[in-house]
Amino acid sequence: MLVVMQAGADAAQVENVVAAIRELGLTPHPLPGATRTAIGITGNTGAIEPERLQALSGVLELIRVTKPFKLASREMHPEDTVVRAAQTAIGPGTFTIIAGPCSVEGEDLILRTADFLVSRGVRMLRAGAFKPRSSPYSFQGLEFAGLDILAKAREKTGIGIVTELMDAAHADAVEQAADVLQIGTRNMQNFSLLKRVAVSKRPVLLKRGLAATLEEWLMAAEYVLAGGNYQVALCERGVRTFADHSRNTLDLSVIPPAKLLSHLPVLVDPSHGTGRRAFVPAMAMAALAAGADGLLIEIHPEPDKAWSDGAQTLDFDEFDKLLASLRRMAEVMGREIN
Amino acid sequence: MLVVMQAGADAAQVENVVAAIRELGLTPHPLPGATRTAIGITGNTGAIEPERLQALSGVLELIRVTKPFKLASREMHPEDTVVRAAQTAIGPGTFTIIAGPCSVEGEDLILRTADFLVSRGVRMLRAGAFKPRSSPYSFQGLEFAGLDILAKAREKTGIGIVTELMDAAHADAVEQAADVLQIGTRNMQNFSLLKRVAVSKRPVLLKRGLAATLEEWLMAAEYVLAGGNYQVALCERGVRTFADHSRNTLDLSVIPPAKLLSHLPVLVDPSHGTGRRAFVPAMAMAALAAGADGLLIEIHPEPDKAWSDGAQTLDFDEFDKLLASLRRMAEVMGREIN
Amino acid sequence: MLVVMQAGADAAQVENVVAAIRELGLTPHPLPGATRTAIGITGNTGAIEPERLQALSGVLELIRVTKPFKLASREMHPEDTVVRAAQTAIGPGTFTIIAGPCSVEGEDLILRTADFLVSRGVRMLRAGAFKPRSSPYSFQGLEFAGLDILAKAREKTGIGIVTELMDAAHADAVEQAADVLQIGTRNMQNFSLLKRVAVSKRPVLLKRGLAATLEEWLMAAEYVLAGGNYQVALCERGVRTFADHSRNTLDLSVIPPAKLLSHLPVLVDPSHGTGRRAFVPAMAMAALAAGADGLLIEIHPEPDKAWSDGAQTLDFDEFDKLLASLRRMAEVMGREIN
Amino acid sequence: MLVVMQAGADAAQVENVVAAIRELGLTPHPLPGATRTAIGITGNTGAIEPERLQALSGVLELIRVTKPFKLASREMHPEDTVVRAAQTAIGPGTFTIIAGPCSVEGEDLILRTADFLVSRGVRMLRAGAFKPRSSPYSFQGLEFAGLDILAKAREKTGIGIVTELMDAAHADAVEQAADVLQIGTRNMQNFSLLKRVAVSKRPVLLKRGLAATLEEWLMAAEYVLAGGNYQVALCERGVRTFADHSRNTLDLSVIPPAKLLSHLPVLVDPSHGTGRRAFVPAMAMAALAAGADGLLIEIHPEPDKAWSDGAQTLDFDEFDKLLASLRRMAEVMGREIN
Predict the structure, then answer these.
(1) How far is it, in rounded angstroms, from Cα D172 to Cα D147?
(2) Residue A47 has pLDDT above 60, yes or no
(3) Is the domain of D147 the same as that of D239?
(4) What is the CATH number of the domain that holds B279?
(5) Which one, of B191, B198, B182, lies nearest residue A186 by Cα?
(6) How far apart are CA C215 and CA C254, in angstroms?
(7) Are residues A58 and A104 in the same domain?
(8) Exposed, middle or buried: residue D121 (CB in 10 Å: 0-12, 13-18, 19+)?
(9) Whether the Cβ atoms of residue C68 and residue C310 lie closer than 8 Å to each other
(10) Fewest beta carbons less than 10 Å away: which of A278, B281, C243, C266?
(11) What is the overall mean pLDDT for chain A?
(12) Which residues is A337 bridged to in the sheet?
C-alpha cells in the first residue's frame, strides 16, 4: 500500500498520515520526492481497511501494491493446478473439451449427445437443468427432472457431467447428478453460493462475471479455495464492453495474465462469448492457441430447434470439423485433446 | 422482431425464413427493399426463441422490436408507482433520503445514527448486516446480530430500515428486521433471490448490476413484479466502465430513460457511485436535478473509523450541509424532501 | 513511480532493478515488505520511460505515482482559470450557455438563432461549419461558406461564436470567424491539431474523447497549455460504454474529479451526451447541480427539419423553458447564467 | 430503417409518421402488431437523416437496418481484397509479419533490424518517425530525419516500410519513405487525414480506434475507399474496456465478424494490444488461429533500452522463437508466413 500526498501537503499532514498508519498496526515509510511525498506501508494490510486513509487531509490517493488473493495466486502455489473430474484432467498438457446443449430439453437429446461425444473421445457433457434467464417468462430449465436425465446419461455412457448450480438449496441434488459444479457468470459474486461450493467434494467451474476484473474473478475463486475446495477451474465467457459485433466480447487476452497470476486452469466458452455460431470455430481455435486449458462449447443435433441459445450452437457436423482442426493444432502445440 | 436478409439472399432463402417464422406460430411480413429484404414478425414473440432464425441461410441479422418487460413498463402502467415504507412515500413529488453507515458495526453506532436522522426529519436508515465483500478475508457483517440491532433501532426511534438480503436462507429474518429489502448490485440477476423477494410483503430496492443495461435491470424488476410484489424501487449505484476517475461510473443519464420506459421510482447511491467522499455532495445534488426520486447515502459519525467504505462516507456535519442544499434545491423544483 | 517485485524475487533481482533505476538518472528507495519488496523511485520521471523497468527479471508491476500533467493541474495552479470570450467569462460564479444548431445550414437559420439567443441574454452561439461525420456520404458542412455566415452573425448581433476546427489547414479561417475554437471528441488526441491551437490567440474548447480517461483529457489540454495558450475549457459530451439507453453515456461524475485535479472550467454537452431531445433538459439541470461551468447545447427553430442531429435538438420553446429552470436553480446555487 | 411506435400510439400519430417518411422521399410500410405498430422504410436512406423521425409524437424508437458502409462491405465485393506492398500480399492464404521497433531511434537500430528481418524472410518493417504521445513532454519521434533513415533502410535492404502518418502536412514526405501509410488509433476518425490518404497511391493500414465499433471502423475505411484508394488493411490493436489486466483489451473476437461483413484484410497488433512483452506471443498465435491476415509486432535488439514502449517489445531471440511457432501453426492451417 502506498499513500500519495498532494504536492502542497505540509509536514503536519504527512505526520498525521504516518500516525494513522501506525494506529492501524502498520509500518509507514515516508518517501519525500521532488514534488510530493509518498508513504509506503508495510505489514498485513489484508485484514484491515487502509482505504480510510484516503480521506485524511493532504492525501491525493491510495495505491494498493499487494494483490489480495493468496490461495489462488501463483506466487503462493507455483505449479499448475490440475482439476480432475470424470476421467479427465484439466491442466497442463491437455486441452479439455466440454460440450453439449445449452439446456436439458429431454432424455433423447441428452443421451444422443452423450453417445455422440463418447464416440468422439469427448469425456465431459455440459447442459443446464436450471437456467438463468433474463426474462421471467423464458424457459427456466427442466430443473430436478433435468438433473435425473443427466444422471442417467452418466450412468449409461460413463460421460462426465458439468451443470450449473444457481441456488444453494439445489446443491445436494446437483452434486449427485454432476461431476463438476458450474457457477454462472451472473453468480460469480454470489458469495453465499461460493461458500456452499467451497465445502463441496465436487470441482467447481467458475465463469467470469460480465464486468469482472481478473482480480475480482480470482477473489471469487479465493472464496472457494479458502473454504477448502482446491479443485477450481476458471472459464472466460465474454465480458460486457461497448463493442456490438458479438453478444459479448470474448476476452482471450485475459488468458496470459490469468496464467501468470494464478495456477488455476482457464477454460473458454466461445459459444456464449460470441453468441453466434459462425464465429465459434475461429474463437475455439484461438483459445487453444492463446494457451487456454479447454473449451466449454454448445452443440445440438438440430440447433435451429434448440429451446435456448440455438443461434450460438454448433451442429454435430460442425463440431466434428472443429474437433479435427483442434486436434491438428493441438498436436503442433504438444497438447492432447481430452 | 425483424429479420434482415443479406443483400444477395435469393427468393428461396427468403421463403425458407418465412416458413420458419410460420412454424414458430408467428406471422411473417416480407418487406422487399432496394438492396435487401427485411421480414417483419408479428405475434407473441416472448414465449419462444426466434433467435434461432439468425442461423438460417441468407439471414444477416435479427432485430428485436418489442421490449421484453411488461409489468415494469410505463406502456402497461402509465402512472408512477409510489413505494411506501415506514412513513415514507418514494415517488412523484418527494425526494426520499435513506442514509446510514455502510455496515452495522454495533448498537451504539446504529442508535446514534438513527437518532441523528430522526432529528433531521430523515425517516429511513440503511446499514448492512450481511455484507457482500470481494475478499473472503474481509469483514462480512455482524449478520443476525446486526439484524437484531436494526430491529431495536426501529423499535426505539420509529425509523424505517433498509438492509441487504444476500441469501434466500436469511429472508425471513431480514423481513422481520427491515422495512425494505435491498438486492445488491452483485445479485441483480440472482434469479433465485429475486423469486424469493417476489413473494415478500416488503418493498424491494433493486440496485443496478455493474454491467446491466437498462433493459436487463427492468427485466430483473420484472421477476419481482411477475411474482406479485409490485413495490419495487430501482437504485442506480454506478456502473463499470473504462473511466478510472472514481470507483464506479455513476450513470445519472439512466434516470430520464428509466422514467420514460418504466413507472418505477429511481433512487441514486452517490456513495458507491463515486467511492469518494469529496465527490458525493455534487452527485447527490445532480441526482435530484436529474429527476431521481431519492438517495441512498452513506453517513457515519466518524467515517475515518468506519469498518468498511469509510472513504466514501460523509460525517454528520457534511451530511447536514448537503441536506440543507438539497432542501433549497428541492423547493425550487417543487419537490419535498422526506 | 513504484516498482513492485514478485514475492519470490531474490536479492540479485532487486539489486538489478535498483541499478537500472540509477542508470536512468533516478533515485531508488527499496522498501522490503513482509511478502515482497517494492522500490520507490524519486527524480524527474517525466522525460524518460521507466516503463522499461517492467520487463526486468523479478518485476511484478510498475505503479506510477505522479500525475503527468503539470500546467493543467490544480496543484501547480490552485485558482480557477477563467476563460474569456466575447463578453462572457467561463469560470467560477457563472454558468455559461453556448447554444445553437448542430450545423450552419444557411444564413437565415444562423441569424434567426443569434437574434433569439441575444434576446434571451445568451452570448455565445455554437454551430458547425466543418462537420465530422462517421459516413463519407453524409453532409460535411457548408465549410468556408459556413464560416462567412458565422462571421456575419457575429458582426450583426455581437454574439460570440464557437465552432469546430477539424483541420490545421483551416485554422486561420476559423480563427477569423470564431471567438472560441472547438476541438471535437474525435480529435482530442490529434496532437498536430492541438499544437496548432496551442499557438492561437483564441480560447480552446476541448471536448473529451469517447474513451478518454480524465488523465488523457487533461494531457490533451496540457498540449495546448504547454504551447502557450492558457485559455482552455473542457467539455464533457458523453463517453462510450456498454450502456445503450442513450447514444453515449454522459459522464457527469467526471466533474468533481476534474475540478479537484485541474483549474480549467468544465462545460457539459447534454445534446451529444444523450442523443435524445427528451433527455436533454434533465441532464442540463444535473450538469449545473454537479458543478459544471456551463452548457453546450443544440437548439434549432425546427429541429425535425435540421440537417443533422435533429433528434437531440431542442426547439426555441423547449430551450426557453429549460433556461427558466436553469435560472431558478442557478440563483439558489449562487451562480449567474451568462 | 424501421420506426417503432409506442404501444399507445393512435392512428393519427402513425399517419403523421407515414407522411413524414414520404416527405423525405422514402416509402413507408406500416406493420400493425399485437401491441404496437412498426413502420418499415425503404428507399435510399443514406443521403438523408431519418433520425429526425425519432422525435415525432408517438415514436418509441428508430432501428436502422441497412449497414451504412458500401465499398467496404462484403455484400458489394464478395471476394477478399489483397493488399500489395513491397513484395508482400496481405490477404487469403498468407499471414504477413510486419515487425520493428516502436520508434525510429537512429540509423543503426533501423538497419540492424531490417537486416535481421530480411534474414528471417520478413519483408515489412514498421517503425514510427512521427509518434503520437499522450504527453507533450514525451519524445515525439525523429520526424523527417526518421523518414530519411527508413528510406535508407529500404534502399539498402529492399525491406518494405510501414510508418504512421499523423498530419496531412507530412503526407508527401511519408509517401516517399513508406510503402504503407499507417493511420493510428487516435486518428481513426480524423476525417481530414482519411481524405488525404484516400488520394494516395500507397496502401493504408487503418488501426481501430480505442472505442470504435466495427461499423465505425469500416466507415473510416469507407472514407479511404470512397476517395479512390482501394488498398486498405484493417488492424486491431486493442480497445478500451473496464479490464485492467493489460494496457488495452485486444479484441480478437472482432476478426470473424469483420471478415463476414467486409472483404478487407485484418491484421492484429499484439504489442499495443497487450502492452506487455510476456503476453505478446500467446496473442500473436491466437491472432493466426482466429483468422487474422497478419501481425504488426514490436521488436528491438535491446527492448529494455528502447526509447518508447520497451515493456511490450520482443527482443530478436523472442521474436525468432515466436516466428518458429507461427510457422508450425500456419503450416497446419494451410497459410504461408510472408
Answers:
(1) 11
(2) no
(3) yes
(4) 3.20.20.70
(5) B191
(6) 11
(7) no
(8) exposed
(9) no
(10) A278
(11) 93
(12) A95
- Identify whether the C-beta of residue D234 lies closer than 8 Å to the C-beta of residue D74: no
Rounded Cα distance between A84 and A293, Å, is 13
Q: pLDDT band for A44, please (50, 70, 90 cuts).
A: low
Is residue B179 located within the same domain as residue B280? yes
Residue C139, domain member (yes or no): yes
Q: How many helices (H) and strands (E) does chain C have?
A: 10, 15
Q: Three-state DSSP class for C300?
A: coil
Looking at the structure, tell me whether residues B18 and B93 fall in a common domain. no
D42 and D97 together in one domain: no
Nearest CA in chain C to B287: C286
Residues constituting chain A: 338
Per the prediction, chain B carries an average pLDDT of 93
Sole residue written with cell 463493442: A243
Is A45 in contact with A66 (CB distance < 8 Å)?
yes
Which is it for strands A204-207 and A232-236: parallel, antiparallel or unpaired?
A: parallel
Interface contact A239-D244, CB threshold 8 A: no
User: What are the C-alpha distances in Å from A288 to residues A101, A189, A294, A331, B294?
Assistant: 21, 27, 7, 11, 50
Our count of domains for chain A comes to 2
Whole-number CA gyration radius for chain D: 23
Rounded Cα gap, residues D218 and C87, in angstroms = 43
Q: Are residues C229 and C151 in the same domain?
A: yes
Q: Which three cell numbers stand for residue D156?
A: 539498402
Minimal C-alpha gap between C244 and chain B (Å) = 7
Summarised one tens digit per residue, pLDDT across range D16-45 is 999 988 888 888 888 877 778 888 887 766
CATH of residue A45: 3.30.70.1140
Q: Is the pLDDT of residue C60 over 90?
A: no
CB contact under 8 A, B52 and A186: no
- Tell me, what amino acid is at B50? P
Measured between beta carbons, the chain C residues lying within 8 angstroms of B283 are 252-253, 256, 290
Nearest to B194 by CA among B177, B178, B218: B218
Q: Grid cell 448542430 — which residue? A: C102
A51 and A106, same structural domain? no
pLDDT over 90 (residue C55): no
Considering the domain architecture, whether residues B240 and B108 belong to the same structural domain is answered as yes
Burial of D227 (0-12, 13-18, 19+ CB in 10 A): middle
Residue D137 predicted with pLDDT over 70: yes
Q: Chains with ≥3 Cβ pairs under 8 A against A?
A: B, C, D
- Does a structural domain hold residue B74? no
**Which residues in chain D have their CB less than 8 angstroms from residue A211's CB?**
242
> For residue range B151-188, what is the model confidence (pLDDT) as tens digits?
999 999 999 999 999 999 999 999 999 999 999 999 99
Take residue B217 and report the three cell numbers written for it: 435491470
Degrees to nearest 5, angle at CA B148 with B190 and A220? 30
Spell out which chain D residues touch chain A, with contact meaning CB-CB distance below 8 angstroms: 211, 213-215, 238-239, 241-246, 249-258, 260, 273-274, 276, 278-279, 282-283, 285-291, 328-329, 331-333
A283 part of a folded domain: yes
B255 phi-psi bin (left φ>0, alpha ψ -120 to 50, beta other): alpha
| Other Cβ atoms closer than 10 A to C114 | 24
**Residue A46 clears pLDDT 60, i.e. is over it:** no
pLDDT (0 to 100) of residue C229: 97
How large a percentage of chain D has pLDDT more than 70? Answer: 97
Query: What is the extent of the structural domain holding C122?
Result: 83-337
**Nine cell digits for residue C116:** 433569439
Is residue A127 within 8 A of residue A150, CB to CB? The reply is yes
Q: What 3-state DSSP class applies to C249?
A: strand
Name the pTM for this structure: 0.92
Within a domain: C71: no
d(CA C287, CA C238): 12
Which of A50-64, B219-233, D284-298, D324-338 has the least mean pLDDT?
A50-64
Position C252: which residue type? L
